[in-house]
Task: inverse folding
């Protein structure tokens, strides 16, 4: 069955342009973009902006049930309260509900792809519950499996099976948290399993452990030379502006990384002290760094995010052959801005209330403002 999204303001994030067009979906795939297309089911998008779904490249989704529990905390307080006191008491059911709620929150706000950096692997049952929560939500997910024991990582990562909407990465603790020797063991396991690595780092001391294609998270103390080194190794970057600034980690190096030739993206990180929607993240970066434009940020939130998640050929832009991960925004909530500059309107004026319809792999998961 085909779906025709008719006469929407379609945002081409690869060219950073927007124009009226139809989008034809055949099954789970974008089949065409243009005019005069026909389909079995028609979604009238005359008053809608049509975007590729947003990509969140770093989120501890299990913490969704702890929303706003630490709105004014610093980083040591976050580690002590969330990971030290609360995480040990989480049951598999708690993890399932956190991941389900967190993934549905993402879909509600137009995030169709999520990298779940999951450091709640108390038991295999906790891991299964986390994956089940993502699966039941219907989101496209990269599951970042994290554990301090290499034997457990190898066993569990080999047991987890990728699917149409699920891929795997190793969520490595890295030298900043477990020391260089343990981090090298993490790298060995990742190479053995053939898994990409996503790892927290602060500065240049975190470099030189993991190989090509590693995603570095935060990197707020990394020098320009360090960023050039990451670029030379084919590394990538995920920044989380709210947690980095509010927890006292430092300034997100998004523009510096992109200037060095690094694919860079955004992540919500944790909702314990910040928002979970991409509109807030884009606007935070826009305010924090005047060198970034609205067109930079729409790309960072979509196509560059897909690259960082290892899914650039799958999602992140409205191109025939890619998966139909799409978001329709109501223009009546954005005023005249949507007519003058649709991309600027999305970055500067939109919020979750504008998200009318969301599709993941051609399946409607939000319709008329309600997540199914």
Result:
């Amino acid at each position: 069955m085909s779906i025709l999204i008719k006469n929407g303001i379609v945002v081409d994030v690869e060219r950073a342009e927007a124009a009226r067009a139809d989008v034809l979906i055949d099954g789970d795939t974008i089949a065409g973009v243009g005019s005069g297309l026909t389909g079995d089911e028609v979604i009238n998008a005359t008053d809608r902006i049509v975007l590729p779904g947003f990509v969140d490249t770093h989120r501890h989704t299990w913490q969704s049930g702890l929303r706003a529990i630490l709105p004014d905390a610093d980083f040591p307080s976050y580690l002590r309260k969330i990971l030290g006191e609360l995480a040990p008491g989480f049951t598999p059911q708690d993890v399932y509900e956190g991941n389900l709620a967190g993934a549905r929150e993402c879909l509600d706000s137009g995030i169709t792809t999520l990298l779940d950096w999951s450091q709640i692997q108390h038991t295999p049952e906790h891991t299964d519950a986390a994956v089940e929560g993502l699966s039941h939500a219907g989101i496209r997910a990269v599951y970042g499996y994290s554990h301090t024991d290499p034997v457990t990582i190898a066993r569990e990562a080999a047991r987890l099976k990728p699917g149409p909407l699920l891929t795997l990465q190793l969520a490595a603790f890295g030298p900043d948290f477990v020391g260089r020797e343990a981090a090298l063991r993490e790298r060995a396991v990742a190479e053995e399993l053939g898994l990409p690595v996503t790892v927290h780092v602060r500065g240049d001391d975190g470099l030189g452990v993991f190989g090509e294609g590693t995603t570095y998270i935060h990197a707020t103390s990394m020098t320009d030379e360090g960023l050039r080194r990451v670029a030379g190794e084919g590394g990538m970057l995920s920044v989380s502006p709210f947690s980095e600034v509010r927890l006292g980690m430092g300034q997100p190096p998004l523009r510096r990384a992109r200037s060095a030739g690094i694919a860079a993206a955004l992540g919500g990180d944790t909702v314990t002290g910040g928002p979970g929607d991409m509109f807030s993240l884009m606007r935070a970066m826009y305010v924090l760094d005047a060198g970034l434009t609205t067109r930079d940020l729409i790309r960072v939130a979509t196509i560059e995010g897909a690259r960082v998640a290892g899914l650039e050929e799958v999602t992140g832009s409205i191109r025939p052959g890619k998966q139909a991960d799409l978001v329709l925004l109501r223009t009546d909530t954005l005023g005249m801005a949507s007519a003058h500059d649709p991309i600027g309107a999305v970055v500067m004026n939109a919020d979750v209330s504008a998200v009318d319809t969301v599709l993941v792999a051609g399946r409607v998961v939000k319709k008329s403002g309600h997540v199914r």
